[in-house]
Specification:
Blueprint (H helix, E strand, L loop, with lengths): L8 H9 L11 H11 L12 H11 L9 H16 L4 E5 L3 H4 L18 H10 L4 E7 L33 E4 L5 E4 L25 E5 L2
Parallel strand pairs: 1-2, 2-5
Antiparallel strand pairs: 3-4
Keywords: Calcium, Hydrolase
Organism: Lygus hesperus (Western plant bug)
GO molecular function: calcium ion binding; hydrolase activity
């Protein structure tokens, strides 16, 4: 069995809770199978079964030096890359672009073919934030400079390549043009939206923003 030396308290707590104690510093295949059966079960105690061959395959993955047993170091690797992600999963909630311009502003999704109401997403998001204790919450925001290449009203500031399917004179919102330069670039043209520090770029006032969350700004 594994020695307690140099093992993290979280590993010791979880394995100790399923009845394992450590002495000789190694796990053999039989002990590894017992740990899998003890740890991997549903909320009713039913074991998620693996065939003998599957258990052996997994054991050999983490028996890095192929000596037929798992050392402390190998178990730590197994813990971090397999066991922990299953028995101690990290939950994250991503809230994507719930910003004024996409709800009621210049690029409101209500104007798209599906004619959805962007406000409809706010209550379900808030309810999840109120009822689920996520380990991490991230809010992404479209965050464009005023001269962003995708804005149709900035088209006049860049040269359109002669090969462009749509000329600068004919281009309209949602068309795709090809800009000239060292590397030709196809660009779809959008209404001006989510300009940095503007009302349109702000998260909607009714959206819950939790403490210790992270905002991710993109589109610069």
């Amino acid at each position: 069995m594994l020695s307690c030396v140099a093992m993290k308290s979280e590993q010791l707590f979880v394995l100790g809770s399923v009845g394992f104690r450590f002495s000789d510093g190694y796990l053999n295949l039989s002990e590894f199978e017992c740990i899998c059966r003890a740890l991997f079960r549903n909320d009713r105690g039913r074991v998620y079964s693996l065939s003998d061959e599957q258990v052996k395959d997994v054991f050999e993955i983490f028996d890095l030096d192929k000596d037929g047993k798992i050392s402390r170091e190998e178990f730590t690797y197994c813990w971090n890359n397999w066991i922990k992600t299953i028995v101690r999963p990290v939950t994250a909630f991503l809230v994507i672009d719930v910003q004024n311009d996409f709800i009621s502003g210049s690029l409101s999704i209500s104007q798209c073919a599906a004619q959805q109401n962007g406000l409809d997403v706010i209550q379900p998001i808030n309810r999840l934030l109120d009822t689920v204790n996520f380990d991490a919450v991230f809010y992404s925001l479209d965050w464009h400079p005023s001269d962003h290449v995708s804005f149709i009203d900035n088209l006049c500031h860049r040269k359109v390549h002669p090969s462009s399917a749509v000329s600068a004179q004919e281009a309209q919102t949602y068309d795709t043009v090809t800009f000239d330069g060292p590397h030709l670039m196809n660009q779809r043209l959008w209404p001006r939206h989510c300009v940095q520090e503007s009302w349109g770029a702000e998260l909607h006032k009714d959206l819950k923003v939790v403490d210790n969350s992270t905002k991710v700004y993109k589109g610069t």
